[in-house]
Amino acid sequence: MQGAKIAIGGKGGVGKTTVSAVWGQLFAEDKFDVLAVDADPNTNLASAFGIPSEQNPEPLIKMKQLIAERTGTGKDAVGTYFKLNPKVSDLPEKYWLEVVGLKLLVLGGITQAGAGCACPEGAFLKALLTHTILQRQELVLVDLAAGLEFMGRASVLGIDALVVVVEPGGRSIETANKVAKMARELGIKNVAAIANKITEAAQTDVIKSQLKDAALLGSLRYSRSVQEADLEFRPVFHACPELVDALKVAKNNLMDLISEGIVSS
Q1: Residue 1 to residues 6, 30, 184, 185, 188: CA-CA distances in angstroms?
Q2: Helices in 80-223 by DSSP H: which ranges?
Q3: Distance of CA 220 to CAs 18, 49, 146, 148, 226, Å?
Q4: What is the crossing angle of helices 64-71 and 120-134, to 10°?
Q5: Cα separations (Å) of 202 from 44, 165, 193?
Q6: Structural domains in the chain plus CATH codes
Q7: Distance between CA atoms of 236 and 48, rounded to whole angstroms?
Q8: pTM for the full model?
């Protein structure tokens, strides 16, 4: 289980970065060698670990010279061709930041409309994600871009589990179901969900009843202290012990789910 690969997604604002950060520290406390990957264009994972904004690593997607060198699109390139599988295996060690007992690699994401696949930046990002998921030995946690975009790029192929964070609300549940359906179609065996920002038990029951193709790992109560920590760029791990305890249970449920899948396969 040391090298499990876990991706975390959901509609924008549901709390997937909070889950990614807390799980990263919990796995690190359990002596896993953790590589946390921020693949969201908003790159907020560093701040969720309590890293001051002025110390945030520059997202690799913004390193234009590096991308040009690796994809063959520098000033000496001929024509508009680029490498679809650029060399990236040496980049994690060069650019990760060691923090709270784990390694953080900030990839970022492509924000302009229509980009992502047929461009050097898209090829670069896909190669890095593929490398971290398929070839790294660490336990990898990927904080994905919000919504469905990452599914269209097949950025999650090869992962052991996809976890969708859901909040009470029709659009959030609808997004979760679409993500789960697409994940199943991509061959991802373990698709699960976490209910977040719960204010009453009935909300968890509604979410559980409306989720399709996703096992509910647990529910997290709405926490004002977590919201305040987010606003003040403080580590969410220390903001709410109740949240950490609930995510510890959800983490253990996820690992049981992955273990069962390994045994059955």
Answers
A1: 11, 12, 22, 24, 17
A2: 91-95, 120-134, 149-152, 170-185, 201-210
A3: 11, 19, 19, 23, 11
A4: 80
A5: 31, 17, 17
A6: 5-264 (3.40.50.300)
A7: 6
A8: 0.91
DSSP letters for 43-83: --HHHHTT--GGGPPPPGGG-HHHHHHHHT-STT--TT---
Pull the structure tokens for residue 234. 């403080």
Q: Which residues contact 203 (CB under 8 A, 6 or more apart)?
A: 168, 195
Under a CB-based contact definition with an 8 Å cutoff, are residues 248 and 30 in contact? no
- Beta-carbon contacts of residue 23 (< 8 Å; ≥ 6 apart): 6, 8, 141, 247, 251
Question: What string of pLDDT tens digits covers the 265 residues of the chain?
Answer: 568 999 999 888 899 999 999 999 999 999 999 999 999 999 999 999 999 888 889 999 999 999 999 999 876 554 568 888 899 999 999 999 999 999 999 999 876 544 445 688 888 988 999 999 999 999 999 999 887 766 655 567 789 999 999 999 999 999 899 988 888 888 898 999 999 999 999 999 999 999 998 999 999 999 999 999 988 889 999 999 999 999 999 999 999 999 986 533 3
- Choose among 40, 34, 47, 35: nearest CA to 9: 40
Query: Six-digit token pair at 24?
Result: 């990263």
